[in-house]
Please model this.
Amino acid sequence: MTTSGNPTAKLATNVPTDQGRFGDFGGRYVPETLTRALDELTVEYDAACNDPEFQAELAELLCSFVGRPSPLYYAQRLTERCGGSQIWFKREDLNHTGAHKINNTLGQALLTIRMGKSRVIAETGAGQHGVATATACARFGLPCIVYMGEEDVRRQAPNVFSMKLLGAEVRPVSSGSRTLRDAINEAMRDWMSSVESTHYIIGSVVGPHPFPMMVRDFQSIIGTEARQQCLAQLGRLPDRVVACVGGGSNAAGMFYPFINDAAVRLTGVEAGGLGADCGKHASPLTYGDPGVLHGSYSYVMQDDDGQTSDVHSISAGLDYPGVGPEHSYWKTAGRVEYTTCEDRDALTAFDAVAACEGILPALESSHAVSQAMKIATAGSHDEIVVVCLSGRGDKDASEIARLRDVQLDLDATSHET
Amino acid sequence: MSLIDDLFARLRASGEKALMPFVTAGDPDISFTGQILAELDRRGCHLAEVGIPYSDPIADGPVIQSSYTRALDRKTTLDQILAMLQTRSSSNGMPVVTMVSFAIVLRWGLELYIERAKAAGVSGAIVPDLPLEESAALAKICRREDFSLIQLVTPTTPRDRALQIAETSTGFLYYVSVTGITGERNDLPPELIDTVGWLREQTPLPVCIGFGISRAEHVRQLAPVADGLIVGSAIVRRIAKAAQTPPDTVLTDVGEYVSELLAALKQQ
Model:
């Protein structure tokens, strides 16, 4: 199988509308200053979708630069351990830069050039989107500034260094909770001043229209490939598809090509953190209400006055109080089931995948694996569960060491090499 | 006719311009906001914008952001803010509008927000994250309630769109002077005067300029072309000193500052 044709081919799901509405959700709640740039982006993206040259260039990059298609891998020993359904991994962790984020950043970098913009900004939580943006910018010679919460700079230090090595400037954000949400605020503020020369590469299916649609489209290569691979390798569609949901980009990309396959059950896994109390988790679809955050109407964790609540997750990439509007739409429509996985269960799944499969999954992806293991344990061996292994976990090693009071002597390690 | 319509009708008749300070509600505390509003009113400011603190203000620079953070750290609620506005003393009848994020309005419910704000004596709202396309439902309620919904035009707004925005705005039209976030600036863009001049020819609405204005020279330069000038960060920065300075000193400092700007307004 090869990655060819149109990487942003659309399904007949009729969302979003021209106003960026996924049912009631989505829209564009941003200052007037940004309206023209968002209008231009919408027009330019639409043109790119219909431009064979753009599509061919993106398809070629996804193949030769990213290494797509990513394999669909049978996790045999994990399956045996669970003793039920077959667990298959969609190996986004094998992409260049180690996560699904590169699918989107290459598409948006090409758009940046197409729009004649000369500077890129981005936000990052876990650092995966920051690294993927820095990578795409280095590849195309675009200056790149990445906003990252101070708390995330601390817990994702290896990615911070990688971004710098790739030539990006990392700007720590010290406001608010010093995590992903504040990094988005700061990137938006930069964009308010620089919008005429700068493109903001949002890393998830969040933000004002057209970002949720565009990022979903760029990520839908995950589900498109997975669907074809199931048919080719297994001779049928899977019974279950599972992905983790922070902002929700890997899940949106994984689910979207399966939306019209009514027999395929789709499950999104939010960060259950330390439990159900407000402030202890990052699960707006499970515990939140619809509201406005970062330019769109979607489920969000907020107080009675509409102030965004603090959230918690062990995983920086899921530590976000909002979620992409299409997930809210899928939840309301009953098409996707959303559940949560607590920190400790994600760590258990992390250990299981390391021990059984020789793969260190990202802590984000470990949330999805945990749920897939639960499903598989309760299922029978003729059932197929595909889980999106959205990223690799090398970046999390030092944080896991810290949580387990393991002292990593990085100097000693470097002397050995 | 709202208090705001009434204000600008009077000012236009007498050839005067409005000075419109912005203050953050609840910074450093809610009673001080009441005192500062009374001081602004006593000094002769024409309208006050009361910023409802919001956790994620993407249009605001560091000065207003940190004032919001301080207010929220003190657990300032919308109920407290509206109660303060309802009981504020107003010697000159200075109207008040709220600068409020749509996240807050939506959480309360559009009807309830307008009803409660109006009951507290608020004359209008500026909702900086509610562009034209998303504003129909709120605009309808505001029209019915004779509550001004002040819309914004920016340097990135195409001219045909600026006209559409002017048609839906009530009370006045807010022209954002710069492509950027709130905060004091040394220089304002040279094309600002032409754009505002053009807008005022196109709409009967008063056009007021905000973002970046902080100095008497800005006031002298811009007052001739606008109906009013909005000053935010320069005031909020002075109020920020209230954490370490006696409140009366801060009140006097802010009072003297707006008096200086009011004097510059009259010299134009």
